[in-house]
Amino acid sequence: MMALRSLRPEDGEKIQRIAKNIFSSPSQWPSFLFLQAPSTRGWVVEENDSLLGYAIGSIVLDEAELSWIGVLPQFRRQGLGKKLLQAFIQGVQKEGAKQVFLEVRADNGPAIALYDSFGFERIALRRGYYGDADAIVMRLAIGPLRQESPERSRPG
After folding, report:
1. Smaller CB count within 10 Å for the chain: N or C?
2. pLDDT truncated to tens, each residue of the chain (156 aa)?
3. What DSSP element (H or E) covers 101?
4. Distance separating alpha carbons of residues 69 and 49, to the nearest angstrom
């Protein structure tokens, strides 16, 4: 049975194996140091003690960044990426994040469609970010960016 759970320190090697299967460049693999940093947040999907996918990022003050999300190819198109992204967003929101940022390869249509479905907006383009591809910087507001006084929030 598949289960969604928080990232644990001992998941590092399994995450590295998945990353090597998904991403061609070692620079796109989560590092062990990042996985152990106090600001790191992550969720994994596992089945029978095997990791099938992960969503990993960080939170600093009221901003979160999704750094990696990946699902093994044989388990794609089953909604796991959506569940992982939802868990990441809800988790950082509970900790006070008001925004989530990410970079995505401009040629990664399925990932862009997933982020669009959650309401992420495109805010910038980083040319050559991945060497062979541009990156689209996206942002999702998950809470009020500032509190308005009751007087200012009244209509008219």
Report:
1. C
2. 888 898 888 888 788 788 877 776 655 555 655 667 778 899 999 988 888 899 999 999 999 999 889 888 888 888 899 999 999 999 999 988 999 999 999 999 999 999 999 999 999 999 998 888 899 999 999 974 343 434 433 333
3. strand 99-105
4. 19
Is 115 marked active-site?
Answer: yes
* Tokens 């008001």, residue located: 98
Q: Which of 46, 63, 103, 129 is catalytic?
A: 103
Residue 103 annotated in active site: yes
Question: 2-145 has which fold?
Answer: Aminopeptidase (3.40.630)
Task: Given the residues 10, 13, 65, 115, select the one marked as catalytic.
Answer: 115
User: Is residue 43 packed enough to be buried (19+ CB in 10 Å), middle (13-18) or exposed (0-12)?
Assistant: buried
Query: What residues are paired with 141 via a beta bridge?
Result: 99
pTM of the model: 0.81
Q: Which of 38, 40, 44, 33 is nearest to 11 (CA)?
A: 44
Distance CA 146, CA 14 (A): 39
